[in-house]
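Exercise 7 asks you to align residues with tokens for two separate proteins.
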Amino acid sequence: MSRPTKATINLSALRHNLQFARSITGTKVIGVIKADAYGHGSIPIAQVLEEQKIECLAVACIEEAIVLREAGVQSPILLLEGFYGAAELPIMEHYDLFAVIQQQEQIDILNQWKGKPFKVWLKIDTGMHRIGFLPSEFPSAYKQLKESENVSQIVLMTHFACADEPEKPTTIDQIDLFAQTIEGKAEETCSSNSAGILHWPEANGNWVRPGLLLYGSSPFTTPHPLADRLKPVMEVTSQIFAIRKLGAGVPIGYGQTYVTDHPCTVGVVAMGYADGYPRHAPSGSPVLVNGQRTRILGRISMDMMTIDLTHLPNTKIGDTVMLWGDNLPATEVAHHAGTISYELFCNLKRVPIHYLGEAVSESEQTKYQPVSISPT
């Protein structure tokens, strides 16, 4: 018998979340599937989104895009970090990719290009202060791209720093600054990430960029009427493989950080930080045993964790433990561990993934022949 830890990906939930995003925005959708679709598997996720006729996919870098193209994915693909050097432009042309333009050096490289013109997404820094042109730099960048023979189309975009914190005024300030910066420009726009889609409808523009939303996890730390309608795509489960009866005053686990204050029953679960469960999740973090809530006791080990079964006397070896999924949101688990659900999903490893939902028809044979990326 193999180790029982597994992740189950519900493709029907993915479809639901995409349709929900479309229903509340009425815009074109860019499905963000960078970082292996947030740990969900970029190829099967892309195939489902393509089956649903998504208008565009987005990845971080050209290597992630090549994986999709060579698997037969035909949808438009946007490189969110753009290109890093001139050597990537022929690769972009070969695989038919779009790029974000976020600094002058990229424009300079693009102006030297001798191939087919590219559709580009011009990023404006309205407050994230990570990448993008400042509003004062935008007129020059925009003019250069408009006049370039190597640019076929421009989409204007920005990114919100605090959209997942609705109580802050930052997002309204960014929305207003973006509108002021691009005033009079006829190009399509793209602003909203998942939190923007759910809470800031005035920012939607022509395109929206759901990432976490697609995977059914709320970007907010408190209940939200729209986020609460999402369906979790990933469910991570394992099993109890040992049960111990311990008396009062007994320390549990590395560092003996938890000491029993009464006689208790402890279950040992095949899940640890080597599987991606956060080591810093404290005692009291929730899990479900056969659908019933209980808590972690002691420090997370590399391959296992200990949980409280005292109030669950009928539990036996082999019973199912849910780490996150339906009825136990990844956002809640992440909050206990002092992190975010994005990190839970992306850190998952050594865990077999199983896909549920109507099978996706196989993609047609890819028209893209593999090429290598030359050093810049």
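Second protein for Exercise 7:
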Amino acid sequence: MKRPRVRDDLALHPGYHSPQVEVDVRLNTNEAPEPPPEGFREALAAELAGVEWHRYPDRAATELREAIAAHHGVQASQVFVANGSNEVLQTLCLTYGGPGRSVATFEPTYALHSHIPKITNTAVVSGERTEDFALDMDEVRRVLTEHDPTITFLCSPNNPTGMVETEETVRAVADLAPGLVVVDEAYGQFAPWSALELVDETSPIVVTRTYSKTWSMAAARLGYLIGPTWLVEELSEVVLPYHLDAVKQIAGRVALDFEPQMRRRVSDLVEERGRVTAALSQLPVTVWPSGANFILFRPDAVDGDTVWQRLVERSVLVRNCASWPRLDGCLRITLGTPGEDDRFLDALTDILETS
């Protein structure tokens, strides 16, 4: 059988995976712990009844972009939508990356900030964070000056560490960056401030968001970007035609009608984050402060791989972060329902006390 070869630069490139096993308590993928609010399914079904299935969807996703713009107090021309925030990142790399260009990341951070550029044949240059995983501005200056990246990725709150970048830090990076500064705010609703405040027509700052977390719509794969109108126009020229289907456009618009319920859920999860963090601080583990819907921790006396496996044996799944740079022995728990979090805390306490 004749078979084409994979591109040489991708042949040994590992894929991105989040291992899934059958457990009672799944706290490893930063999803919302509950489905959309009551009434969402009915409202969505009513709107879907009017879909003209034999017609292509609105190529510009006009109504969805207008709804997102109204939600954030910006213009629809500043909104780009795609199949999850990862497709937003991919479109940015296809538009501004490519051979001879580079993106900058600061590790540890979201793995797809490196994975997606490599797939688009864009070089990745990485700097180190400080001991407590904060951005080191001297290191930022070195990386940006030496490598001249067309895109600099920040993640706030940072995945998997949970750290929120300050407004001062984002402004400082934007002043140093030779190209775009992409602030990935997949967990931005859980943080005390947003870089959306800094987006305008003259700034190199753009912000990406997702429906997967606070909107309880991970199954839909819907994300968006807020940025200058000129950037949105350029992204729209690169993305595939009719890339966002009619169902997704309607679902995203309908979800925004339930904003009060979502805000209450965010508030509840922030309170739950405090409770779980306090409980972890009473155990022999190192815990990092988080502004997201997850918490990073490292067992002090027991190997992280061992703890992860023993949690699975107790039907609790968390994320093993050992493959991230500088995160040997670290685990990350996604906040679940109070009952799920109690199952995790009880299991972890038992493991640490009997090891």
